[in-house]
Amino acid sequence: MRRSFLIALLGAVSLLASAQDAPKHPTRVVVQVSEADSARWNLVLNNVKNLQDDLGVKNVAIEIVAYGPGIGMLKFDAPTNSRVSEALKSGVAVQACENTMRNQKLAQADMHPGISYVPAGVVQIIKRQQEGWAYLRP
Amino acid sequence: MRRSFLIALLGAVSLLASAQDAPKHPTRVVVQVSEADSARWNLVLNNVKNLQDDLGVKNVAIEIVAYGPGIGMLKFDAPTNSRVSEALKSGVAVQACENTMRNQKLAQADMHPGISYVPAGVVQIIKRQQEGWAYLRP
Amino acid sequence: MRRSFLIALLGAVSLLASAQDAPKHPTRVVVQVSEADSARWNLVLNNVKNLQDDLGVKNVAIEIVAYGPGIGMLKFDAPTNSRVSEALKSGVAVQACENTMRNQKLAQADMHPGISYVPAGVVQIIKRQQEGWAYLRP
Asked: Which backbone phi and psi does C119 adopt, to 5 degrees?
């Protein structure tokens, strides 16, 4: 009994240790883009810039996830195109939802080069929250 | 002292055990509807469907909470009516805010049959987050 | 080795103890205002009132953070001015984003007296989530 108690304690300690594992970036934020509105796309990109300026680029991991009507932000001819390039250059992950692309008959050739793709934007957003990322819906 | 130390440790272990209690569904998501816009209602229902398709219906608990201008999605004559029925059939909880209904002089007879009711939509959304549910505001 | 094991356990227990520290308010909510739409500002203020009515004013800490196009809610001549005063009187923290104010050439003299200021609204929203606050984006 004494032995099993110690084993339980060892388990407790290792659990705590893993809970303490510092993520690579102290702050992690998943940013949702789900509106077909270029003013909102610019707001999203302002928000990302402010997070980086305030916290330091190296201290914050940012993922932009565009889905539904928000997918337009990541088309190659979007008005926010050069700002998306800047965000990518600064280390932001910019992700398009493949479900949305299928629905809107969009191919990767229609999109901003350099972005990445997720099977379902909404699943990515939920997954990140479960992993402890903060959620921003501008 | 040795004894009280062991008691403290036992407490620590039981705390950890309860923190480890697996919820019934590994993924739990509360989805907010607060806009009077049927395109957004369809987006919400698309999002719910994608979560179920991607994660498996049995692996994700979803609650839709409609309040404020979003309450219209749950009226019996809403354009999204049949899709709300499908969501209910698939096990999604669909909840209308009674505060909003009072303000807009809506009775349960005005609403989609089969939905459920919460006293305050906003309280439900906050409560779920406190319980560890992810939050989606499409 | 036995000794270092006990030290590790002591660490585990104190970690758990700090995780158990009750925050002053059992419920803490950060509410985002990022749209230039007075109907949405009223919805935000309704939501805050409902949270207070349902949970009890003393049981919920609420911070409203206005940034980007949402900053208009906190100008001294906003249509929601008297309701913002009521929210402040009830203990809600109402915060304007100084980044946005700089961009829109707004001074504190242009704003509702009694509000407070944060360097970057979006950083405040993320920080609060990291501290365990629930997030509401009406």
From this structure: -60, -45
Which of C16, C21, C34, C42 is the best residue to mutate to test the B interface, defined by the most B CB atoms within 10 Å of its own CB? C16
Return the residue of A nearest to C35 by Cα.
A138
C135 touches A at CB < 8 Å? yes
Q: Which residues contact B37 (CB under 8 A, 6 or more apart)?
A: none
Radius of gyration from C-alpha coordinates of chain A: 19
**E strand or H helix at B116:** strand B116-118
Segments of chain B with pLDDT less than 50: 1, 13-21
Res. A24 pLDDT band, cuts 50 70 90: confident
- Residue A6 touches partner B, C-beta closer than 8 Å: no
**In Å, how far is A15's CA from the nearest CA of chain B?**
8
Burial (CB count within 10 angstroms: exposed 0-12, middle 13-18, buried 19+), residue B104: middle
Separation in Å, CA C48 to CA A113, C52, C87, C126:
43, 6, 8, 19
Q: Which of A138, C29, C51, A126 is nearest to B135 (CA)?
A: A126
Provide the CB-side half-sphere exposure for C104 (13 A, CA): 19
User: For C33-51, how does the pLDDT look when each residue is reduced to its tens digit (9 = 90+)?
Assistant: 999 999 999 999 999 999 9
Q: Which of B6, B21, B29, B31 to mutate to test the interface with A (most CBs of A within 10 A)?
A: B29
Nearest to residue A119, comparing CAs of A62, A64, A65, A44?
A65
Distance of CA B93 to the CA centre of its chain: 6
Residue of chain A with shortest Cα separation from C132: A134
Half-sphere exposure (CA, 13 Å, Cβ side) for B137? 20
Report d(CA C121, CA C128) in Å as an integer: 11
How far off is chain A from B66, nearest CA to CA, in Å? 18
On chain B, the residues whose CB falls within 8 A of the CB of C39 are: 69
Tokens of C133: 């606050």
Cα(B81)–Cα(B87) distance, integer angstroms: 10
3-state secondary structure of B73: helix
Helices (H) and strands (E) in chain A, counts: 5, 5
Question: Which pLDDT score is estimated for B18?
Answer: 46
Q: Give the closest of A12, A135, A138 to C12, CB-based.
A: A12
pLDDT at position B109 is 98
DSSP labels for A74-87? GBTT-TTHHHHHHH
Q: pLDDT at position A19, please? A: 46
